[in-house]
Design brief:
By secondary structure, this protein is mainly alpha-helical. Helices cover 79% and strands 0% of the residues. The chain has helices at residues 2-9, 15-45, 57-70, 73-83, 86-95, 100-110, 113-122, 127-150, 153-171, 177-189, 191-201, 205-216. Helix 1 packs antiparallel against helix 2 (15-45), helix 4 packs across helix 5 and helix 10 (177-189) runs antiparallel to helix 12 (205-216).
């Protein structure tokens, strides 16, 4: 409000400029509240409390076997050819659970080992379902580009909300806040990922989506 008062006190007071400034300030306040609401939701649901418990060999084998069950015979044959044997491919899948950074990310997104296991065991590998989710993602990114070209902040905010809902479905998440913020960071730091996104949806898409996500969550 102090910023608005300063403008009103200037000799060349412009009512439209005051309203624009007020809109920007209110949007910033709303974005910070979005982030706070998401964090409170996490706590209320017990999400992202980082209840770490290492995966046992039995857990890992259960996940690996479920992954193989979800794969088509052709996909498995392709991996066997690549790795030399089915056992070698199983070892490769199991090795992911020794990657500290990958496990830290999973824990941040899901909050507990139980949530990670639940999400993995719910996956089916259904190609039709995966395509639907990918098509929805494409539609959302095109909405981001429309928002970018028209400078439509309402459309931008709606696109972030749609992206969050789609990610919740794709990754079986209670809350998409952390995974989207990590995605934003990757777009800004990983040039190859940014280039792939821009190549598909248009120049500047990756940076715009990253900044839109951070604005939405008040980061």
């Amino acid at each position: 409000m102090n910023e608005i008062k300063k403008i009103m006190d200037t000799p060349d007071y412009d009512k439209e400029q005051v309203l624009l400034t007020q809109k920007i300030l209110l949007e910033q306040k709303r974005n910070r509240l979005n982030g706070i609401i998401e964090l409170i939701t996490d706590v209320m649901k017990g999400v992202n409390t980082m209840s770490f418990e290492a995966f046992s060999n039995e857990d890992v084998q259960k996940i690996v076997n479920h992954t193989l069950e979800c794969m088509s015979k052709d996909s498995i044959d392709e991996q066997v050819k690549k790795f030399g044997s089915l056992e070698k491919y199983k070892e490769y899948l199991s090795s992911g659970f020794t990657n500290e950074q990958a496990m830290a990310d999973l824990m941040k997104w899901y909050g507990s080992k139980e949530k990670i296991m639940e999400a993995i065991m719910q996956s089916t590998g259904d190609t039709k379902e995966i395509k639907q989710e990918q098509d929805e993602n494409t539609k959302i990114y095109r909405q981001f580009m429309s928002a970018k070209e028209s400078a439509d902040t309402d459309m931008e905010r709606a696109a972030v909300e749609l992206l969050a809902e789609n990610y919740k479905k794709m990754f079986v998440l209670d809350n998409a806040r952390n995974i989207l913020l990590d995605l934003a960071k990757e777009y800004l730091q990983n040039s190859k990922l940014a280039e792939a996104c821009d190549r598909q949806f248009g120049t500047g898409c990756s940076e715009y989506v990253a900044n839109a996500i951070m604005r939405y969550y008040g980061v």
